[in-house]
Amino acid sequence: MDSSPSEELSRLAYSNVNMKAHAEERLLRTLLTDYNKMSRPVANTTDVVLVRFGLSIAQLIDVDEKNQMMTTNVWVKQEWNDYKLRWNPQDYENVTSVRIPSELIWRPDIVLYNNADGDFAVTHLTKAHLFHDGRIKWVPPAIYKSSCSIDVTFFPFDQQNCKMKFGSWTYDKAKIDLVSMASNVDQMDYWESGEWVIMNAVGKYNTKKYECCTEIYPDITYSFIIRRLPLFYTINLIIPCLLISCLTVLVFYLPSDCAEKITLCISVLLSLTVFLLLITEIIPSTSLVIPLIGEYLLFTMIFVTLSIIITVFVLNVHHRSPRTHTMPHWVRRVFLDVIPIYLFMKRPSTVCKDNCKRLIEMMHKKVSPTSIWAEAESSLFVPQPDGQGTPARSPSPSLCLPMEQHLPKTQLLSASSQYSILLEEPHLQDCFSPSPSPSILLSLSPDGPRGHPKERSLSVQHALDERELPQGVPRCHSCSFQYCCVQEEASQSAGFLRIPSPCGMAHPKPTTPFDRPSPVTDGKEQQLFLMSPSMKLAIEGVQYIADHLRAEDADFSVKEDWKYVAMHFRKHFLFTDDGITRLSFNAERMYTLLSGLYKYMFQKDEYCILILGLDNAGKTTFLEQTKTKFSKNYKGMSLSKITTTVGLNIGTIDVGKARLMFWDLGGQEELQSLWDKYYAESHGVIYVIDSTDEERLSESKEAFEKMISSEVLEGVPLLVLANKQDVENCLSVPDIKTAFSDCAPKIGKRDCLVQPCTALTGQGVNEGIEWMVKCVVRNIHRPPRQKDIT
């Protein structure tokens, strides 16, 4: 049965694959037969095995500042040649390469010298890629923990330089020599870290002679310049520390009467202690260097402690009184008279307590007898001839002395009185009635008319019961009078108080004090009321209270002076001790912390751009137009002054958050050999072609091809400018692309753009620079060289 053409093709393909598989099996059996993986793959013992070594980082896992260790996930790229593993592809069905287990072949013993966890060599042995010419490529992954010297001086705005040193452990340079694949670490598959940014990672070949051996050992050391992202620590550590430390100043703003001054200081001190403990958990336990933020917190804690001591002293001065301290004359002179002048302070008006002022004035006020009697008489209820009476009430308590013997003996206290004699002596009652039944009540009352100073009055009041009053006897309203000692000494020596006649039937009509006979000429018509011992005690009590209040007023004035002195101390320590001293000690630290925060917030990534091309291509003109368009207040160089570049021209512009530094290199043939010196530091290349000079187009193409062939510029963005497009009969962009088409394969995987440009007028400058900025920012092969502030 005939098969279809498709089945024949399938059978033929399967047979070819099967034959190729058999060929690989036969090849491996042939290569590994009698193969000794212990010996070096050299034909002569004097030959050196050249191992091309490179490093590709996949992830920066962690940087342990406490243990000074960096954990990375890397791919260790190694290439060498083994002459014993060569074959002719034609003998094995054109098999040019095979994957072979690395355990079966010889491998260079390259280890990480500064390993920190004990695994110096690669632990996961992957397969090696073997080519027919004996070349072997082996790229095993590895997670290394390398030692890293951490410098936390500027934490959390610090930048670290962690190194990874690779080299052969047993073979010296005469047996194995290392050749670096690239000057930088490959970051093609790098996974960005949330805490650290790799600023730069370069490799350097070194040779060293150790004390243990006479041979020289080569190594390749990769230096990782990493910088911390400080946003987390800024929000959770720096800003809270600054805010809490500022609360110390508020202690001196609190009034001295506030009891929370010490509490606030201690709370701030405890908070700073907690933040200091957090820092000690992060930084390494070393005495070589102390971070500036730690020094800042330490000095702030010292000043908070001093603030507590000062606050205790101020409170002690504030609460001093004449009973505990005597104010020296110099203190009164300096703090009450001199210092307020220099501090531009004005003491408020003197405020004195007047608790007893009106009482003292009233006791020493002389009242005329006329006013006494007039006030006393005006308060009596006097019946008129027609049987009607006009009641008149004094604003002060009254004196009522009923003369009937059958009145009640109950003695009560007047509701308006404040100082009373509740019980009088029996001999006092005899002055008013022959019977001991009437009761006399004397009181001192502060009542007085509204709007006038309060006066003290002597009130004698009898409690009456309407049911006990005899018929025909009119009700008696109280009669009051103000007492005053017109002749103080005479009254006290006589031991009595002169009062008006009591109301009642004996005086149906009121009389004026001028109609009354004097007590000397007519003593029978005047009743003398002798002062009782209780009255004397009451007056002495009032005098004692007045003296006590007077002394309290004097103490109040002295206390106010002490408080004013304490206020001077508060303001002095506020502006001098807490301000100037803190600034002098912490100026450098605060500047570093704040400048680091400022750099982080307003930082600009710096990129180096090479401007290459032949001489007279318009490189310098393009640079001047670029600086004119992207720099404020910059006036470009006059065209008449622009000449052929000999050496180097440098220009800088800012575009968004990126800072571009241009290096304009001379294009003469003797200067082109210097171009490669700048390749390693460049982040982008601008190649300028003179589209009007067809004669030198081949020369420009040769220089261009040599430039892009450099491995150092691998992955660097390339901008080709077809300059002088404003000239007639110039080469267009398609013409330039056609002329340089042979160089296209060498461009490789990089961003490339060919753009028309007229540097003289600035046409195409903005578009070219904006494209270059986008490319260098997203290019992971060349991170920014450094960060700079605006």
TrEMBL record:
Chloroplast among keywords: no
GO biological process: Golgi to plasma membrane protein transport; intracellular protein transport; protein localization to Golgi apparatus
One GO CC term on file: Golgi apparatus
Keyword check for RNA-binding: no
Protein residues bound to GTP: G613, L614, D615, N616, A617, G618, K619, T620, G667, N723, K724, Q725, D726
Family statement: Belongs to the small GTPase superfamily. Arf family.
Complexes and interactors: Interacts with SYS1.
Entry protein name: ADP-ribosylation factor-related protein 1
Organism: Conger conger
Lineage of origin: Eukaryota, Metazoa, Chordata, Craniata, Vertebrata
